[in-house]
Fold:
Amino acid sequence: MAASCLNSELWKSWERQGKTEYIKQVKQLVKNDENPSLLFSKSTKNQGLTRFIYELIWHGINGPLRKEAAASTIGELVSLHKEMPSIILDVVGVIDAETAIAENNTEERQRFCFIVRESEKYLSDKLLKERLDIDTLQDVGTLKNRNFYTKFIKVKTKLYYKQRKFNLFREESEGYAKLITELNQEICGSITPKYILEVIKSLIGCFNLDPNRVLDIILESFECRPDQYQFFIPLLQSYMCDPKILCEVLGFKFSFYQSNPEEPTPESLYIVTALMLQHEVILLDDIYCWLTPHDSVIQKMWEEEMSSAQEYVRKLNIISTKDKDKEEPVEEKETLQDNFNSNQKFGLCDALLKVGNWNHAEQLTRKLPDHCAMDQAPVAKSLCQLLHSTIEPVYRKNCGLSSKVMGQPVPLPTNPLAPRPAVTFLDLRKDAIPMLLALGPSLHNDPVLMYKILRLSKAALAQKDTLRLQCGADPVMPAPQGDTLYMDIVTLLDEVILPSLSHMDCNCCIAEEVWNVIKQYPYQIRYCLYSRWKNETYQLHAKLLRKRGESLKKIKSIMKRVSKENIKPAGRLIGKLTHSTPGFLFDYVLLQIQIYDNLIGPVVDSLKYLTSLSYDVLGYCLVEAMASADRACFKYDGTSISAWLQSLSKFCGAIFKKYNIELTGLLQYVANQLKAQKSLDLLILKEIVQKMAGIEAAEEMTAEQLDAMAGGELLKAEAGYFSQVRNTKKSSQRLKEALGEQNLAVALCLLMAQQRYCVVYRETENSHLKLVGKLYDQCQDTLVQFGTFLASSLSVEEYTTKLPSIHSMLADYHIHTDVAFFLARPMFTNAINIKFDALRKADPNCKKMSAQMKYQKYVEAAAEIMGPVVESIRPLHPPKVWEDISPQFLVTFWSLTMYDLHVPVESYQKEIAKIKALQAMEKDAAVGGKGKKEQERYTALVEKLEEERKKQQEHVEKVMARLKQEKDSWFLSRSAKSAKNETITQFLQRCIFPRCIFTSTDAVYCAKFVHTIHSLKTANFSTLLCYDRLFCDITYTVTSCTENEANRYGRFLCAMLETVMKWHADDVTFNKECANYPGFVTKFRVCNQFSEADDHVGFENYRHVCHKWHYKITKALVVCLDSKDYVQIRNSLIILIKILPHFPVLPKLVQIIEKKIEKVREEEKSQRQDLFILATSYSGHLKAKSSSMIKESDFHQVPEKPSKAQETTPKVEPSGQHPPVTKPANGEVAKPEKERSSERHANEKSKEVAKESKEKKSTSRQVDSSSTKSAPTKSSTSATSSSDSKRDSGQVKERADKEKGKESYESKEKVSKKEERREETDKERRAKEKKEEKALREERIYREEQRFLERSSKDDRYAVSNSGTMSGGDRYYDRGGGTYGSSGGGSYHHRGEADDPHDREDISSLSNSSTGSATGGSHRRSSQEPPEVDRDAKRRKMEAVSSSKSTKSDERKAAAMEVPSSSSSSAMEKPEKKERSSSKAGKEKSRGEKIGAPAMSSDMGEEREPRKERKVARKRDRAEEALILAEKRRKEEEKAAKMQSHQNGDPLDAHGRDKHHYTSSNRVSPREKSPYVRERERSHDRDGRDKHRRSSEAKRR
Structure:
């Protein structure tokens, strides 16, 4: 309202009407105010009045109002009200301040002073001097004396700051004496605070007492009797209502003790202050500022204490030679006590807790660093005492002690303001739990309170479990956030109980109480608590840090002295330390174990004095050591697992076996690692299962152990393992329970099965191949070990319930067949047995049932159980697979084990004999009842073994009956081709290869199953082809194996070779087990008729096959040894060691392998030590076996060379007389002698003529020329040619000596005449030899044409039938050139003449390049394809071409190569050894070999003629075309023979052509040197099929 009136026009028209208007409005404001006092009016009108005055003065200063007008108007305003002068001076004071601080205010200040000076006429001088500053008064001129300001300062100082002396005479001491008496009298009903207050007032007035001194005396009296707080508190509140004054008085008291350090602050002062705070007489903030030291000083002291503790720990780890200053622990305690006494804030906190003032104590502790106040022992003890009284009611109710046990009663707090005692568990949450959290590790000051808290926690958790079980909740899962103390107790354990335990030395009882509480939580929560306890809690408390350093020092000292001799004393010391601080102590122990693995045994034994809590912490420390290891898990070369991880794994197995430590956390860690595709930690699981369950994962089993593993569980435990499994019942049960808690059994199995292939393709993408193999083997071994444990420990119902079905594992979890059936096999066996028992009991004649009836029931039970499995398997493979093998066969193969096929009778007998021997020894040394118990135990064990053997025998008989009934449906007879090609391929790919490398027992099982199929006379299954496919090319299989798989594959090959060599050794055994079996048939027909005896392989032909197999194995392994690749060399050495009992057995092969082994040793001696050790080991074993080698002539029938008498006088049958027909031992029908005599006679005659001509020439020729004839031209024939040259040179020297003796008696003329006659004779004989040789050649050509006609007709028949089988006249070719079952009757013809030169060269000079030239899969067999139709025709054409281009040196070279081409025996033996072991007759024989070799070669070809001629009638449809082709080739050969005879008259040209053919084929097809490549001169169609098969087989593998 005022602002609206005082407009600018009013000031401009001030003289005319403005002043009148202004006075009018001021009067109106004064009159309308109802309050007579303008100064104390609460209305807004006073503000308007001051605004009017303010604007008046300001307009007078700044215009437009004149300053004289403004002063006169003020004079008029003064008269309006008596308080107007005071209001005007208030405004003047404000304007005075504004003008004084304004810049450039000279004019304004002068005008202001003029207005004030003029106003003095209307305002009193006294009022001006009171309101205005001294400077303003001087400026205005009111004060004219300049010394006034100085006087004013002195008076003010004297008045306010100078203390006047008390007039003690005026204050009478009797008043204070009376006051003290009144305050300290006995308080009774009539003495009330109000009454005493009146007395105090009277005393002050009567005796003129100082009120402040009276207040101080009241507080002193309160200090003397703090228990009378109910009297003094109201008295103080009545006497002094201002809390600040009370705080000042108390502050002066605290300050007095601060200035006097020698005299500590009395506890009574703290108590009084605490009581006054509790009753809110004073405020904490008001008194806190008076306390010392300052917060910053306390913070600095706390930080210094932490740094001092850290430095103390650091110095403990430093080894110093200087004398250490020994610090007495008493001095440290005194220092701590001094710190407490000098800190008034700690004292006040202690007093607050003593009086029960928890709220203010909590506020005070929050102002200080965390746990700083509670680290003071008096403060902590006071809080503990407060907690005792707070939890007493609920503790007495739920302590769990007997009513007869009376504990020490704790008085309840009498202070009504103290925390209320808790009656229920939830009441603890209000005050007790916050107190405990504030107390922290200082709870160790009161162990009794700690016991109470632990018992209450245990009771609260038990009540929680009861409520949850009543509600139907899962007791394993954590509790929900509700009205329970579940998570509150976790917090207490984390922040209070476990840190407090670290302070309590050697208190195992309280550690067990802690375990009783903490064990009710799952391992996840427990391990979190241990982690914080070990890694974080110690970093927050200086005392705990020092404690940790001292404990580490002690454990280091103990670990230096741990050994097998002092296990008990060291164990006790370790146990004492771990009662309180187990975490970091176990870290150090584990670190030492990782470095020194020989500490594992002593440390495990010394940990028997640990508490349950320490064992659980040890389990956590093991998981942490595995998970958070900073060191690399692999060695520096990246090819093997680090030693520290292996040591830690071994320690895990030993410690979990010996002590009852929870396994769930460690097993879950392994599962999580597998989920993350990390299989390295499977090493832990492997050790745990081995130690706790007694199931070994050892691959290096002996033959006796493998045989025992085919028996029952008892035999396995007694004889199948390296160490006797004892005392594993409890530990295996614990492992089983741990797996069941988190349902980890099935999860681990499935994860391991899936991880096997993640190891190769994901986990180890950039790792060394050796490491990949080790990780794969580890995963495989652990899977087998773990699966075996589950099958043996779980009941059948549990196993069946937990494990998914076989179809689910294969289809849903994508587990491979080998693992899926391995896991499901126990389910099948048990289900069949249960069904068999049900069917047997259902039969009314079950008690009188015969064995055959039982077998039939078993077959029915197996069919019923396995039927659904067969149907579930069918969709998992393409339909084409089931065209060759049936799903029933696949399921049967994978569902059986060695237990089902073989009873290890010898192992049972050995073990029983061993037990009886022990029983006899114990009987002699037995004394007392203990010996009797041992005897009974041995007797029971023998009976159990006998019973187990009989039970297995019955089981095997039932299984065999089942197999006999099923065998006819295993291999389908859709065509004859199936038996030869796809059936064997599918069998090897789907069954044999995956399983033979799964386990060692499975490797033996595969060999046994193949023998079983053969023994059962299974239709459409060729045992011979199966063995051939397995032996003929093992290079790629060896290359693709890991180390353990190579061991298993070697065992498999050894078992297969054992069977092969058993049949090879004895014709009786062969005839008994193989003679008329379908597995050895060589003609495969759809009708499956094999009644003809000629359809089977004979004994000698089988021995030839065995020779070829040994040769092929050698070639494959030599390629691997020459490859320079680590995996190939290692695997080949492993397999050579495994098959050593049966391979090599031929001296030539031994020499070749020894040479390669020595080469490997030399190359790897300083490079790869493991290969060097393997090679050295094998070399030693091979040399030890050298005495048991078999001569090649004993190994198989070698064509004999003709004797000297046969060479000179060939035997000729009389004309018209037919020789008798002979039948060899192998069952073949031999050719009539007449049919073979003509060619043999011609050959022998040519040999004789050549021999005579050569002897006559030797006297006239030089030794050099004869040696030149026999000089080697190729590396493959160097050894043979050199030996021939030596023999020739020796013969020449002898004859030269004789001629010299004759020349001494005859003249030179006679010599010259004789030489002329001899030359003429030689010419005549050479011409005669050429004619005879031509006739011989024409005869040979004729016979070859006949064979070609027969073969052409046979091959045409093969082309019409459009099948790759051996039906009809087909023959089965192997890559070495041998044939199974030729058209005549299943005989095997060794083709050493064709292949041996190449093979010798290949074996002796194979290198890594051979591997590069090989293509295709690892199990390709050229034997699956028929021979080329015109193969022999091509060979003859090549002979003709090569013979036309040969020279004398080529003929001599061919003659030198005659020795290895004559027979397979000479192909594998060095001529030098023959020469050293032969006599002079042997030299004559070697001279005759060059002539006799072609005849022998042709004889081997002629042996097939009688069998072929029987089929000529069926093969004349293409005879005319073959005759034309044969005639053409005969003309070409005649022409070539003429050219050769013109160049050289040596009659060895026929043999030279034979040899030159093979050397030429070497040049034409250099890839023949690779052992993997088939003979390229065979049909292109076969090569195409081979290539397709190789690629498909490689993909399948």
About this structure: The longest strand covers residues 1372-1373.
